[in-house]
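Exercise 7 asks you to align residues with tokens for two separate proteins.
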Amino acid sequence: MAALCESFTLCGLGPSGGVGLGGGLLALEPGPDPDHVLLTDRGRTATLFKVSDQKPLGCWSVKHGQIITCPVVCNFETHEYIAVHDDKVLRIWKNTDINLDKVFKATLSADVYRIHSLPHGGPIVLFKGGGVRTLDVLLEAPQQEIENIISDEVIKWSEAFMDGQQPVLIFTTEKGGDFFVYVQKLKMNSLHKYKLEQREIPKPLIFTAYIKNQIITLLCLYSNDSVYKVLIPLQQNSEEEEQILCKSQLLKLSVSGSVLKGTSFVVLDKNHIAILGSLAAPGEESKECLTIWNTKFQTLQTSKELPLATSGQLWCYEEKFFFTHGKVLTVIMYKCETSSLAAAVGKHKDSQTPDVSSFVNWNTLADEELVVSFQSQQSVVLKSESKMTLRSKRNSIAKVQPDTLSVGQILLNLKDTSTTVFEDELRQLISKARMPDFQASIGCVITALINRCKTNPKYYPRNFLLHIVQTQDLSYSLCPDLMAVALEKKDVHLLQICLQRFPDIPEEITYACLKVFLSISEAYLQRIDVNLESVICYIDIEFNNKEVKTEIVENGFNAELEQETIWNTEITKDTHLTADGSFCPVGPQKAALLNAVLHSGYSEVFLLPHLKNLPAQQAVLFLRYLYYLYVKSSEKINTALPGIRSPTISQIMDWMCLLLDAHFTVMVMLPEAKELLSNLHKFVRAQVRFYSELNKIEGSLRELQRLNHQKDSQTYSIEVLELI
């Protein structure tokens, strides 16, 4: 049994959202750690990512005019990175290197097709002419002559494995419609050439392979939408120069009359493969989807529709799928269990095995497939009943005990019910004791609510959604459309709670929330419910006259702020009243919303391009509020604002620097921001001087502390110490 689990976004791919990935993704390779992946774009850049944190750890680029021509790989033995640009120029560097112009460089004598790096076999370099060298041998003499083995053939695909202690390289070539397979064992320096059996019109499009028991299993996806298997034994005694490889059909990519046009596929285990492609039904528009197939029983195990475009590339590492989806690189976790016929046809009785429909959006499945799924489930639950027609069985589904139905089946049954019944049933489903894959099930419930919002614009269960988010441990990746709908509805309270509770919100959504919070009027915010626990301790609120006052401090004073009754499209004329940081430039509701943004996680590299699109007036207002927080936090010795979820000094400083980086040129030219920038400069300079003076007496204070420890604490004395 195989299932797709939760998904999340690793990084953006567009010019404004990615780390040097604006030209598209060339390849994804494993990094030095199981949690690291190495991305190479179709241009000049390679980026190392930590998958669990969705954060870049390093980014390296070659000079303008140079192009990386094959995927960058990691040398697992030395933890160095290897790249080839302009076909022949080899570069090797470490994590600590920044400028690739200053790292090791070697110009080779032939064009490189690809470098494969094995954890215990070292890097292997495959040249476009079919020549193969280990990296160590190549570095001994970079200009050594490389033999041309394949003459007029063109390499289509390659892969490397370890057979015990022996590195093995396999690659396929094509010439005039004929396809050839080369297998080379490097330590034995043996090369075998094979020709793929070609008796029919279909041609092989994509290849993948794995090795087991000294036998290479080559899987080929052909143009007739079938996967074929070719067995290649490593022990060869024949002296024939070219042997014919026979193929056998492993899988036909069709289900319920629909055909899957695969663009990429990977092997998961001996019984499962994953295929990325377009599922096309007669008379319907094709839909891109990710599928997992059981090759042992030739069944489709699970699928996920991908509404946004993909590049057709699919990678798989550490039980995670990686593929481009729209303008982002998406990661989906999966799990494969021991294959059995019951699991393959959906009749597994093990309650711990999650139903496939728990992970699939029921709106994306055809009605026929849902009925078949229900029928197979019903045959287990209602095995004592007499056989019924399919139509009558569909009508009797609602009579089945709810505990015997999967989440996907329950949601389908509720698809056409009234709003009241729909919400009541979902509340009962959520209130049940925790079931297997409970979080994924809650994600499906939220998806069902959002889908109904999309089909019925007047329907928006605000309180229900708010209750789910507040009571369940969710993430953005489990319900990615939730915040988008909340932004559309201007539901700032729900957005605030999501920002506080979701750990994996993309920077684009964080920026969208910030823009909405800054643009919405104070008068509107006073009429809605907002959690004020992060501001109530340092902003005094008079609820009778709805005035906002600053907290009384030892050497400060109070002042009233005018309320805004329109959207904040203009900066107030009295900007000098708040430019010194003594007054809060926004009301408590807006301050609480902005604090939620300050608490959300982000990557500076990804957020900065979005912040540059923030309107200048909103940027000035946000900077004024950050300056106010900076002044308030600096009044206390511990530099911490009182209250729950109040911003820390580090968060305030980081956002202030980020905002200035994004808008410094504009702010310098804005008259409204001139005094604010001047006051900010003076305040920071005064703090720098203050801490500089503290550093000067640090040595004296340490000496005083040392002397106090040496003295007898029971003797009374008065001493005068002069600090010079």
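Second protein for Exercise 7:
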Amino acid sequence: MGRAVTVAACALNQWALDFEGNADRILRSISIAKSRGARYRLGPELEICGYGCADHYYESDTLLHSFQVLAKLLESAAAQDIICDVGMPLMHRNVRYNCRVIFLNKKILLIRPKMSLANTGNYRELRWFTPWNKARHVEEYLLPGIIQEVTGQDTVPFGDAVLATTDTCIGTEICEELWAPNSPHIEMGLDGVEIFTNSSGSHHVLRKAHTRVDLVNSATAKNGGIYVLSNQKGCDGDRLYYDGCAMISMNGDTVAQGSQFSLDDVEVLVATLDLEDVRSYRAEISSRNLAASKVNPFPRIKVNFALSCSDDLAVPICVPIQWRHHSPEEEICLGPACWLWDYLRRSKQAGFLLPLSGGIDSSATACIVYSMCHQVCLAVKNGNAEVLADARRVVHDETYVPEDPREFCKRVFTTCYMASENSSQETRSRAQLLAEQIGSYHINLNIDVAVKAIVGIFSVVTGRTPCFSVYGGCSRENLALQNVQARVRMVLAYLFAQLVLWTRGMPGGLLVLGSANVDESLRGYLTKYDCSSADINPIGGISKTDLKSFIQYCIENFQLTALRSIMAAPPTAELEPLVDGQVSQTDEADMGMTYAELSIYGKLRKIAKAGPYSMFCKLINLWKEICTPREVASKVKHFFRMYSVNRHKMTTLTPSYHAENYSPDDNRFDLRPFLYNTTWSWQFRCIDNQVSRLEKKEGISTAEDID
């Protein structure tokens, strides 16, 4: 019997409930894996129905159609003479499980239910599934008729077992099980399992990829073995982007790396490895071998099939490689761009419209669209027929070939500078120049007529005319007049999105892009139902700090020199009157805090799970060189007042690309009340008491009230 085994990990751009497309991508991946010599093909988690089905998992239709696709896969000629490992939901004894179905030559070998469910952050698996809590226990699963007709089997093994082929032993993990402190691969490895597989539905977060890679490599560093990880990729219907990164590792080293961001719907990673390298690696780890002698064995499903061949001495073996990680700026450039392309082609719209203000946020959004155009042109140049077909559908031209990103951008991207009497010539010029450099179809318009008409209606009805504070108005008047401008821009954005292609003699409509960053959303520094209200927002989960770094990246890599003046200008909403023709309003002055401070508040609030008092306690140490305890208390109180007053805005937040673990997205990631007692009386009193104790200890007078 041979020693060299060839395995394949697949990254597939599956789409929730797209059973036809999902089945096609699975079959293509199996065919590619076989053509490259693989004897075991592993796909992403829940790949048959798509991971993001959410409450559709409750529907019997989802289970039915998953079995129909399974039957199609079992019958396919492409799926013969290769062990296929696919993911789908199914029900066993009236309990729904997230499962792997492993089959060979029209016979199901094992149904392996997930044992540790992901239930944090964006994950809600316990809402739809039950974990299999019977370790090392196997039951009989009665197959539905449509599967019995194909396999000739009435029942198949269901539970926690491993596969024993004629040359090795294979154990299964599913996504979260790798991240759990008691991962199954630990005891499986001690029981002689040599190949571990993991099917994931893991989404992109900035700076997360290295954690996943480290977990996979560490899984085999202590215990030896081969680890094969497959992951979904793309936008499958919501805010998440699944970032592929299929990989194969052996004895603690990466031997094959898949792409994190690409427009390929099907990516197959294949590696050939020597089983004797695993055995010799394990042989000298005495602590591992002592533990193995006491392990409780797993049920073994015998499979009369080998992953190797008898004559494999000349087969080239994969060697360790160095994993190449993207920088955060590259991740921002590529991840949201791929997400936008998936959303555009799957929504069957003709492009995007962006209100381009000449500031950092809208400019960063424009750069991401430009990056998308780059990715499309590059994919077409590399022979991706699917991307070419999608591009032709988007532009409604069956002969079109996207070659120049700027030319493609002109077809699919409209930018619009919406000036008012409070806008400066500088921001107008910046927006115009950036639009020229990326190639977007650019519109300049003035909203003053619409604003005056709306304020005029109010004046006719009430007999009162509000005015800005610089003209003697109160804060309520000042804010209301700013909000009218912002909301008029939203109405005009949607009007132009629907009709601008009509005016150009082109078919279709445009998706409106929002450009509020994660920090502004957290603080509530936006007008409800203004230009932050859009169809989707590619930067809504990205901090201002990271966006500035991304802008610098675009200057250097896309030669967008217009961004230099945008970077140098202070962020401003330009909603208040100019002073001597110059902008007097700035974002940080309006907010009463800096973007750098906002980023810290956001991470402490969400990631560190800090309420007002805990945040104060952490910051008096973090900022002890720059702020007194009293100043820290004032800053923390101001943040929580503003956060709680504006939390209601998160309920209408535009769906945004999820990129940060401190996102305030109210949809499912950051679940909080939106009506707070904004005085925080008990919490703030605890802070006050602590400040008094600290000042007394330092000999400072405490007579002054704390804001």
